[in-house]
Amino acid sequence: MDKLYLDIETTGLSKKRNEVTVVGVYDGEKVYQLVQGKTLTQSDLDALLKDADCLVTYNGKRFDLPFLEYNYGLEFHGEHKDLMYLGWDVGLKGGLKKIESEIGITRDSGVCGGREAVVLWNRYRRYDCNESLSKLLRYNREDVINLVEVEKAVEK
């Protein structure tokens, strides 16, 4: 079974008014990132996910997958494991960063959360600031890689 860990970055919380800026996918060995205006297209997204039997997300049921369905026509019919709900079953509640902190995961990107990710994207787009894009991509990379440890914690 091909399991992929998926996380997206967006310009806000509304799938209808906001845009997907980055899609990150981790296959357990390598991180793949699609960036709006560069590699984030429906065909590239479909190609990236085509062999997946299972997608693992955090709050993906309510956020990531609906955003991708609405904006890119994603039709994923495999298993979807949403770690947020599995965490609730073992007493882990809150956002991904809070859960990571509770189980001892540290981050190096220096990005505090989703709001800062939006600021980084806007700075990149407005001023062509590649440093901001690099920081956003490091943040997204941490998101998808850390899902592996979160998955282990919620399945104990």
Short description:
This protein has 156 residues and is of the alpha/beta class. It has helices at 42-49, 60-72, 83-89, 96-102, 114-127, 130-154; strands at 3-10, 20-26, 31-35, 54-57, 79-82. The protein has one domain: Nucleotidyltransferase, domain 5.
Verbal overview:
This protein has about 160 residues and is an alpha/beta fold. The protein is about 45% helix and about 20% strand. It contains six helices and five strands, in the order E-E-E-H-E-H-E-H-H-H-H. It has helices at about 40-50, 60-70, 85-90, 95-100, 115-125, 130-155, and strands spanning about 5-10, 20-25, 30-35, 55, 80. The protein has a five-stranded mixed sheet, sandwiched between helices. The longest helix has 25 residues, at about 130-155.
